[in-house]
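Late entry, evening session. Most of the bench is empty. Finally got around to the prediction I had been postponing all week. Sequence below, unchanged from the version circulated by S.P.
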Amino acid sequence: MTDTERQMDRRLERTILELLERRGPTATICPSDAARAVYSGDGDGWRALMEPARRAAGRLVAAGEVEITQAGRPVEPARARGPIRIRRAR
């Protein structure tokens, strides 16, 4: 992993936590919210950051900071397939 990739990973983690902090205590976000927030270009280049954003959320789950949910229920990051939401750990 390059320094640039590590920096982007950390930035995505910080952005996920910042986005959740700005919302209500029970609010959720989509990984695309974080990807769009850190993407600095025009167009839909943020889509390339979707998997890194999901991985960042997975690391935050491991740290006990957030939960990943599907259909409103927590799921293990490795088992999540399809759309997910991220919320503060409960």
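Two things to note before I forget:
Residues 3-22 form the longest helix (20 residues).
The beta strands are 28-29, 66-70, 73-75, 85-88.
Will write this up properly tomorrow.
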